[in-house]
UniProtKB/TrEMBL annotation:
Superkingdom of origin organism: Bacteria
Matches recorded under InterPro entries: CENP-V/GFA, Mss4-like_sf
Keywords: Lyase, Metal-binding, Zinc
Domain CENP-V/GFA: 2-116
Molecular function GO labels: carbon-sulfur lyase activity; metal ion binding
Acetylation as UniProt keyword: no
Name of the protein in its database record: Aldehyde-activating protein
Pfam family membership, one: GFA
Family (UniProt): Belongs to the Gfa family.
UniProt lineage: Bacteria, Pseudomonadati, Pseudomonadota, Alphaproteobacteria, Hyphomicrobiales
Length: 131
């Protein structure tokens, strides 16, 4: 089990089970919503329990994806393609150790010029297998 919350604690969550490998997204939308690249894990929605959901504000950043933020402190937390059976959670929202590591970097062509990717994980121009 893994727990997490926004900065102010108004929105919390519990994930049942182990977390999968993480990805780091360098697209311009993730950079603008997180302040840098976004690192997250995609989990089955049935493994997630959200508390304080009345404080989550959803913003459609595209026609197919909405992002969830705490309406009080502004912490970005969720990446949700409505209708899918999975949801993305920002790793920075987790409390304590996650037991996962970044396994890939996606949308690296959009990465900011102010940092380098130096962890040795594979880098992709888009999402592997989405072509």
């Amino acid at each position: 089990m893994h727990k997490g919350a926004c900065l102010c604690g108004a929105v919390g969550f519990v994930v049942q089970g182990d977390l999968p490998e993480a990805s780091a997204c360098h697209c311009s939308t993730c950079r603008k919503t997180s302040g840098s690249h976004e690192m997250g894990v995609d989990i089955d929605k049935s493994a997630l329990e959200i508390s304080g959901s009345e404080h989550v504000t959803w913003y459609f950043s595209s026609e197919t994806v909405r992002r969830g933020f705490c309406s009080i402190c502004g912490s970005p937390m969720f990446f949700d393609p409505p209708g899918a059976d999975w949801i993305g959670l920002h790793l920075g929202s987790f409390d304590g150790p996650t037991g996962t590591r970044v396994a890939k970097h996606i949308f690296v062509a959009d990465k900011g010029d102010y940092y380098e990717i130096c962890d040795g994980a594979p880098q992709y121009e888009s999402v592997p297998g989405a072509d």
